Amino acid sequence: MNIIVCMKRTPDTATKIAVKDGQIDPACLDTWIINPYDEYAIEEALQLRDRAGEGKITLVSIGPPEAQETIRKGLAMGCDEAVHLVDDAFAGLDPLGAAKVLAAAIQKVGDFDLVYTGWKGVDEDHGQTGIYLAEFLGLPHVSMVVKIDDIGDGEARVEREVEGGHELVRTSLPAVFTAQKGENEPRYPTLRGIMGAKKKPFQTWSAADVGLDPAGLQPVQEILSVTLPPQRQAGRIVEGETVEEKARELARLLREEAKVI
Amino acid sequence: MNFMQFTEEQEMLREIAYDFARNEVRPLIKAYDRRAEFPQELLPKMAALGFLGVCIPMRYGGAGMDYVSLGILCEALEWADSSVRETIAVHVGLNGLPLFQWGNEAQKQKYLVPQSRGDKIACFGLTEPGAGSDVANLSTHARRAGDRYILNGEKMWITLADVADHFLIFAKTDPAARHRGISAFIVERGFSGVTTGTIHGKMGVRASNTGWIALQDAEVPAENRLGREGEGFKIAMSALDNARYTVAAGAVGVIKACLEESVQYANQRETFGQKIGEHQLVQQMIARMAQRRDAGELLVAKAGWLKNRGIRNTRETSMAKWYCTEAALASANDAVQIHGAYGYSDEYNVERYLRNAKSAVIYEGTTQIHELVQGAYALGYRQDKPLRCELPAYDRSYWQEEGEATLE
Ligand SMILES: Cc1cc2nc3c(=O)[nH]c(=O)nc-3n(C[C@H](O)[C@H](O)[C@H](O)COP(=O)(O)OP(=O)(O)OC[C@H]3O[C@@H](n4cnc5c(N)ncnc54)[C@H](O)[C@@H]3O)c2cc1C
To answer: Disulfide check for B250: which of A18, A260, B74, B214 has CB 3.0–4.6 Å away?
Structure first.
């Protein structure tokens, strides 16, 4: 069972986002993590490999040189190898471009049964990359996977999340799965895992290495501006002589001011 | 001095250790503290991650990290609760490292390997009902009888006494001598004549197990003597050089927790139409915490740096332990003050930090003992003599090599 997990580093979900000139201020991004949905994919992949008792997990990630440390955390968790895609042409990729780069890298890695990635990145919340990726690889795509029920000879049965419930699907392999939070919590890397991470194969590939022309990676969409949610207003205490009076006033405010009833 | 430049692995450890403290320790520790119960459920988790052998070479079951990493781990754990860090201080600092430093190969294979893997838990029995600071006055007695020693006496205030499988026990093989009459023994819980119990009613570190060990004609094989006869005092003091470092690092974690929680509260609570953080007297308490944190970090970093290089650090480690534990106690005291009545209640964490912090100015050398030590160094009354077995400098490739070490 050879699995390729596409992961990316995203700002820590605890980051206090600041906006400057209509874009996210890069100065506020100082702590980086593995995108949590990719981390679920890593955990599932580790369990699959360990259950199979053979095979390897290759991490594929696009990111600046500093992303190396985050990728290495994936190796510390137990993945076997990593491919880091670094190129000036990869800065500012949109999901379509990212999927092109990942697809080219995955084809170069070759020999896999499954491609696993998070269903979205917590940074820009597009939720597109996995879908494009399956298309470029010409593979079936199962989204929002929460559990692998059974996986075997060229076939897998997986549970995916649908609004209010679960759906059991069968698909041929290889396939592209995107992970949603399931039952398995991502493991902590062990200390031995941390110390061993630097000894694992780690390759750095450029656009040329995966046979891509930067001209074909131009974004087809552009972020025009970013705005923060409006500041929460201070609470208001509804005044009134009696409970009935207060309730009537509250109902009026909900209807006329908040317009929620 | 490679100034506070942490390696990628140390940074990753910091992240994981703090995640562990945040997600595994903090949610449950308050309840254990209230019940004064040892959180046994954490041990298998800590073992699985390699915490229980953090800086022990892989060939002896450890994770093969360095001494700086030991400090990072302790800071993160004590950021959640002192009692959890105490487990590392005792199991690794006061037992595992002395075995590594002074033990022969057979002792390391038999005891250090399972301890570093976390299959066995270990503690350190030096203090007695009648002897704490005055170690040379201890009265536990070890009499040689053929291929064994017979031990009699009682150890008191021993962390993990009721939890540990292995005890490092200090006893007099020559009762007439003071320091030079002490020897060290590796004692198993299962040896005949060994009983233990827990001390109840502690002010703080209630989620740590603290107890007594009674030795009544306890039979210990002669091969379980650690080091030579009469070397026990030196072994104990070198063990304290390691554990005091973990205590100092942990105390920095306490200061950080106090500072974070005080800042949060000071930005929330209002009096006289202002956030209390805007009152200058509150700012002063916060500023002092930040100062103590920064100074404490430097002292710990220096001690860790010296350890990694194999340079004797008894003075620097004592300085770090003395400063950081007093700084943590003062910070916890201020943190309670900033929280007002809420801080006095266990609804918040800071009262626990205060109760915990008081213990660390008592164990591993009271503040007064460290003042005497520092005074003696400064006045030139005290000098460190080389030890027969020094704690080796950290050597990455040796620490990382797997496999069986050859028997001596
Ligand atoms: C929570 C906890 C855990 C512990 N865990 C362990 C453990 O795992 N293993 C272990 O062996 N011990 C342990 N101890 C014991 C600890 O190391 C001793 O309590 C400590 O060494 C002090 O000894 P004492 O309590 O006998 O105090 P004493 O030595 O009786 O001191 C009493 C007071 O006199 C002061 N004093 C003593 N001598 C001098 C002097 N020469 N000049 C000035 N002042 C002096 C002291 O500073 C102190 O204020 C633990 C203690 C606690 C509280």
So the answer is: B74
Residue range(s) defining the domain that contains residue B250: 234-379
pLDDT at B279 over 90: yes
Closest CA to B328 of B288, B277, B364: B288
* Alpha-carbon distances of A20 from A24, A26, A225, A227, B207, rounded to whole Å: 6, 9, 10, 9, 47
Count of the separate structural domains present in chain B: 3
Give the model's pLDDT for residue A235: 83
Judge whether B364 counts as a catalytic residue. Answer: yes
A33 close to A10: Cβ distance less than 8 angstroms: yes
**Residue of chain B whose alpha carbon sits nearest to that of A198:** B9
d(CA B240, CA B305): 17
Q: What is the pLDDT of residues B113-161, one digit of tens each?
A: 999 999 999 999 999 999 999 999 999 999 999 999 999 999 999 999 9
Q: Where are the beta strands (DSSP E) in B257-296?
A: 270-271, 274-275
Does B12 sit within 8 Å of A72, measured CB to CB?
Answer: yes
> Taking CA B211 as the corner, what is the angle to CA B208 and CA B214, rounded to the nearest 5 degrees?
155
Contact call for residues A68 and A9 (beta carbons, < 8 A): no
- Distance (Å, rounded) from C-alpha B14 to C-alpha B171? 38
> B365: CA distance to ligand 1 center in Å?
6
Say which CATH number the domain at B178 has.
2.40.110.10
The pTM of this model reads 0.92
Length of chain B: 408
Same domain (yes/no): B22, B107:
yes
Cβ-Cβ contacts under 8 Å, A194 against chain B: 9, 12-13, 16, 63, 65
B202 Cα to the center of ligand 1, angstroms: 14
